[in-house]
Amino acid sequence: MTNLVSKRVVITGLGAITPIGNTPTDYWDGLMRGQNGIAPITLFDASRHGCRIAGEVKGFDPHEYMERKEAKRMDRFAQLAVAASKQALADAQFVINDLNAEQVGVMIGTGIGGLKVLEDQQEINLIKGPDRCSPFMIPMMIANMAAGLTAIHTGAKGPNSCAVTACAAGSNAIGDAFRLVQRGYAQAMICGGTEAAVTSLSVAGFVACKAMSSRNDDPAHASRPFDKSRDGFVLGEGAGVLILEELEHALSRGAKIYAEIVGYGMTCDAYHITSPVPGGEGAARAIQLALKDGGLAPEQVSYINAHGTSTPMNDSTETAAMKKALGEHAYKIAVSSTKSMTGHLLGGSGGIEGVAAVMSIAHDKVPPTINLENPDPDCDLDYVPHHSREMPVEVALSNSFGFGGHNVTLAFRKYVK
What is the SS3 string spanning 36-77? Predict the structure, then answer.
């Protein structure tokens, strides 16, 4: 059997558009302050819905990143992805040109895709008739368009795909991009996750399956991962993008390096369409596989950006999984859920949480879990309550779990020559 190429892969650029900041710097500053991004929904009339709060992106102007005509032909989820990707390329000072375009790829995951366009066009179909539907409906709606349009807007002609694994999609996209660079199929990848599912139909569906918080009168405290009184997640929107680059290529152009990505674990519960397997066996294996892939021992892990959705089932199961995978060292690791501030971006979560994990390594600080006032007895780890923490961060993990039993863990490490 031929030995596979195994190149070192580093992160050289970041992009983030989130409910608490529309640049990576603003997002990180918001995390460090424990900023709340949850408020009453403004993107549609939610007065008849059981959940009327969300983590909306504020003040995003797509025309800062694309022409008005182009923006009009994109669903919001694709606009966010293109914008975050352009931020990340600018941050990396990475120029795509005729010489390198075929060696730069795109992997951007999403859980749902262009749901708002689908809702709007269905209303037109029913009220005005099928002949009035937009010819752009399909290319605006389909989930792969975030990746496709990012390539069109940046000129990246290398490998291009889209993970659609529910709330694990962004992390799957980063992990898959890591493999492509690691194995020599690309020199660099634009990768992450995006979602813009704060829509009437989306909220109605999640409320119907009893997944969402009903704390409509107290949005600032509605997302409360690991708290005994948590009652469901709060929907968020946004995009997070990382530039992954082969180490020698990054060094040859003098790029700044935030961190190194070293491990990718991916499993399936094969258990239930929405509930995690009791005891977290599938999630635990994903963590263990990421550590094995990165040649890491549990004792090397400093911080975990947890999936931490604020649902009764996830938080206790994820806690059990971390203890199963990491043993007694789990109690010595700083764990936090940034969803306490941003809400749950579904397929976009892995993108912005990957950015947070990388920033924690770069700055030797970890974000807090806000609203953790009365910890669940089954959730007994160090969740960094209320305030961010300065501490050495050598290795950070990012967990993402999705409906269908998808489990993903990414392992990042401080870069050392």
Answer: CCCEECCCCCCCCCCCCEEECCCCCCHHHCCCHHHHHCCCHH
All residues at 6 or more sequence positions from 47 whose CB lies less than 8 Å from its CB, including other chains: none
Token code pair at residue 58: 């504020």
**Coil, strand or helix at 122:** helix
Helix or strand run (H / E) with residue 240: strand 238-246
> Measured between alpha carbons, how far is 192 from 173 in angstroms, rounded to an integer?
6
Residues annotated as part of the active site: 167
413 CB-contact burial (10 Å; exposed 0-12 / middle 13-18 / buried 19+): buried
Cβ atoms 366, 34 nearer than 8 A? no
pLDDT tens, residue by residue, 82-106 = 999 999 999 999 999 999 999 999 9
pTM for the whole thing? 0.97
Distance CA 107, CA 193 (A): 8
The CB density around residue 382, as the number of other CB atoms within 10 Å, is 15
Beta-strand (E) ranges in 46-165? 53-54, 104-109, 160-161
Domains delineated in the chain: 9-252 (3.40.47.10), 263-413 (3.40.47.10)
Q: What are the pLDDT digits (tens) for 190-249?
A: 999 999 999 999 999 999 999 999 999 999 999 999 999 999 999 999 999 999 999 999
